[in-house]
């Protein structure tokens, strides 16, 4: 099958931010997203920036495709301003975190959607546990031949993003001991977690076709990988991060993701190699960063070399600045 990769300007960026609707008196989720969205549509009929999500207690804020993180943050700020009086009228507040800390996850209402209804029907118990919230970042890639190599580069730096955003230590009233418990809940869905993709785009098309023929998926979007191409947008999408608690954190996660993609793109243009780790190292790093957050020690090379994550993250930021990635995305 043909998996068309849409045209997209290099290193443009878009952000999706999932927020919980919370009763400030009880700190419990409120299943009033449909009512809030209906009122929002009447007040701002062409807003296009705020959407329903799987659960009725969730709103998703979506930026437009932008050239800068500041532009995405501006979109998010406008969305929050539009929502503020409506959410306040419902005696609610919006909260960002990877999970809700204490309510039973299966007690939350699912949005009226054929897609979500089918997911819960198929996955049963685990589908009813999806009381989780994330920040997703899309970055434009101008050439589909670059997409999978850049994806591998992002996977090698997945613990940096994951640990920086980790905000889900509690689950159903329990302290899980994990900085990012959301990652382990989400991976229970089919085809979620670390990707198993081939070497090139032709192979990805063949993989998608075979999975559809086998009845494993109905569309490419059902591949819920931590990092995945988004053919319809012409982007690579990082999906590993817990929902940020504030807009400043959203900006930090978005900026790091954008710089990682631009840095990888620059290296490919120069004929240089990208960091690529064996799959079991990627899995080990994901577990370590989920368990220990920024206190983790991660594998940094195919030879098994290790480094404290805080030090590795600091070195990465210095490298991105020195290499011009930060300059490359300020257009």
Explained architecture:
The chain is α+β, with helices and mostly antiparallel strands and 331 residues long. The protein is 41% helix and 16% strand. The chain has eleven helices and 13 strands. Strands 1, 2, 3, 4, 5, 10 and 11 form a seven-stranded antiparallel sheet that branches. Strands 6-7 form a two-stranded antiparallel ribbon. The longest helix is centred in the last third of the chain and has 23 residues, at 247-269. The two termini are 35 Å apart. The relative contact order is 0.16. It catalyses: L-cysteine + L-glutamate + ATP = gamma-L-glutamyl-L-cysteine + ADP + phosphate + H(+). One of its GO terms (molecular function) is glutamate-cysteine ligase activity.
Question: How much of the sequence is in beta strands?
Answer: 15-25%
Bin the helical content: 40-55%
Quaternary status? single chain
Write the element-wise H/E pattern from the N-terminal end onward. Answer: EHEEHEHEHHEEHEHEEEHHEEHH
**Low confidence ranges:** none
Separation of the first and last Cα atoms: 35 Å
Number of helices: 11
Q: How many β strands by DSSP?
A: 13
Indicate the radius of gyration in whole angstroms.
Answer: 19 Å
Shape: globular
Mean pLDDT: 95
Main β-sheet description: 7 strands, antiparallel
- Which structural class do the helices and strands define? alpha+beta
Function: ATP-dependent carboxylate-amine ligase which exhibits weak glutamate--cysteine ligase activity.
EC number: 6.3.2.2
Protein name: Putative glutamate--cysteine ligase 2
Enzyme class: ligase
């Amino acid at each position: 099958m043909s998996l068309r990769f849409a045209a997209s300007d290099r290193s443009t960026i878009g952000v999706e931010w999932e927020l919980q609707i919370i009763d400030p008196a009880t700190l419990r989720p409120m299943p009033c997203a449909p009512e809030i969205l209906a009122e929002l549509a009447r007040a701002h009929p062409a807003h296009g920036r705020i959407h329903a999500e799987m659960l009725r207690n969730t709103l998703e804020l979506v930026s437009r495709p932008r050239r800068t993180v500041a532009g995405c943050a501006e979109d998010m700020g406008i969305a929050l301003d539009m929502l503020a009086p409506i959410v306040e009228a419902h005696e609610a507040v919006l909260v960002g975190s990877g999970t809700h800390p204490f309510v039973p996850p299966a007690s939350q209402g699912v949005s009226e959607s054929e897609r979500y209804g089918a997911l819960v029907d198929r996955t049963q118990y685990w589908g009813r546990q999806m009381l989780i919230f994330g920040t997703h970042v899309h970055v434009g890639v101008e050439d589909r031949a670059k997409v999978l190599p850049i994806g591998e580069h992002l996977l090698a730096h997945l613990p940096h993003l994951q640990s920086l955003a980790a905000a889900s230590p509690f689950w159903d009233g329990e302290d899980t001991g994990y900085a990012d418990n959301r990652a382990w809940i989400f991976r229970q869905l089919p085809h979620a977690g670390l990707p198993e993709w081939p070497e090139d785009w032709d192979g990805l098309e063949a993989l998608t076709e075979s999975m559809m023929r086998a009845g494993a998926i109905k569309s490419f979007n059902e591949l819920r990988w931590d990092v995945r191409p988004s053919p319809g947008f012409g982007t690579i999408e990082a999906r590993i991060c817990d929902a940020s608690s504030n807009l400043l954190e959203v900006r930090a996660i978005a900026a790091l993701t954008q710089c990682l993609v631009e840095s990888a793109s620059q290296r490919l243009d120069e004929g240089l190699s990208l960091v690529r780790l064996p799959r079991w190292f990627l899995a080990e790093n994901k577990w370590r960063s989920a368990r220990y957050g920024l206190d983790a020690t991660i594998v940094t090379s195919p030879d098994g070399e290790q480094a404290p994550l805080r030090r590795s993250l600091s070195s990465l930021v210095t490298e991105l600045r020195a290499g011009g990635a930060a300059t490359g995305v300020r257009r």
